[in-house]
Amino acid sequence: MKKSLLLSCALISLNAHALVDYSETVNEPADKSAGRSIQKMSKPQSSGSGRSLSWKADMSLETNYESLEVGGNKYGVMNFATHIQTPVDVYFDASYWHANGDEGSSSGNPKLILGFNWLRFGNPSEEARVDIYGGAKLSSSSKLGSSRTDKIIGAETTKRFGTFGLGIGYDVTLVGKPKNSEERAIGNISRLTISGGWMVSNDIQFEIEAESFSIDKAKDTNRAARLGEKVSFSTLSPKVNLGLAPAVNLELGARFRMKKAKSEADLMSAKVFDLHGANSNSLFAGLNLTI
After folding, report:
1. What is the pLDDT of residues 135-164, one digit of tens each?
2. Strands 35-36 and 16-17
3. Is 104 helix (H, G, I), strand (E, B) or coil?
4. Which of 58, 92, 156, 260 has the most neighbouring CB atoms within 10 Å?
């Protein structure tokens, strides 16, 4: 049974994008999370002799609680995510968030991802991987959720160096047209992630992740509520993962805005609540369960 970890903040946390497996696994697909870039440590499993025709998949369930502010109002956000890695180099990710704050509760945009483990080479302790993925973020009618239906395409690569790992990911969100007339129209969203991890022991792992977002100006010039200029912002997130049991990890972390958007009011009306660092710094804690 593998140990996996998560965060946040996305569902959303869209993704983001793959975590490097630091253990010495053999003939076993490594867990991957869209939206992150460093593969979590996993526990080796014994494999039977010869090829098996039985369908076996690795599944992880992740949840965390994040505290942040939006327009001066405090919100507590519950993030939920699941990851299924199949034995045929195909994986599925799904995520969702729900926020409670001073002005009531709000449901997020469900996010669905289908990914492919495209390339994998090197021995287990020095493995390099390239994954590609695509998916969609469904519309929501809540106050903080977007009424758009967006499409997502991206790729990420990870490299292991013994107990260290490095990951780089890039994805583009092809935004749809808002159904709500009061929601601000925006252009496509680009996200770049760079992350590194260090496995101190079997039960302790440190990770640091940098994310950079860029939102293009809206193409629909006939719409009154639209983003008139390109907006960019970035975050830095240190995390620690603690093994509580053979299949349970505790994740603790913070997210700091390294570069703030010029017009946060425009982003609030554009309903990009799930983009890390769009609104404020945050703290988060969560549990990851591997089945």
Report:
1. 999 999 898 999 999 999 999 999 999 999
2. parallel
3. strand
4. 156
Nearest in space to 251 (alpha carbons), one of 108, 24, 66: 66
Which residue type occupies 20? V
290 token code pair: 């591997």
CA separation for the pair 168, 214 (Å, rounded): 16
Q: What are the tens digits of pLDDT across the range 256-277?
A: 999 999 878 888 899 999 999 9
Are 280 and 264 spatial neighbours (Cβ–Cβ below 8 Å)?
no
User: By C-alpha distance, which of 249, 252, 285, 287 is closest to 43?
Assistant: 249
CATH fold of 16-290 reads: Porin (2.40.160)
What is the Cα–Cα distance from 269 to 173, expressed in whole angstroms? 18
Is residue 159 within 8 A of residue 131, CB to CB? The reply is no
Amino acid at 168: I
Phi and psi of 150, rounded to 5°? -105, 150
Q: Is the pLDDT of residue 209 over 90?
A: yes
Q: Which helix (H) or strand (E) holds 35?
A: strand 35-36
Residue 125: pLDDT above 70?
Answer: yes
Question: Could you tell me how far CA 182 lies from the centroid of its own chain?
Answer: 28
Q: How many CA atoms within 13 Å lie on the side-chain side of 195?
A: 30
Cα separation, 291 vs 284, whole angstroms = 23
The pair of structure tokens assigned to 81 is 């995510």
One-letter identity of residue 238 = P
| Residue (of 9, 18, 36, 38) closest to 96 by Cα position | 9
- Give the pLDDT of residue 266: 85
> Residue 208 forms beta bridges with which residues?
196, 238
Residue tagged 């409670």 (tokens): 100
Q: What are the residues whose beta carbons fall under 8 Å from the beta carbon of 240, sequence distance 6 or more?
A: 204, 205, 206, 207, 251, 252, 253
Question: How many CB atoms are closer than 10 A to CB 245?
Answer: 10
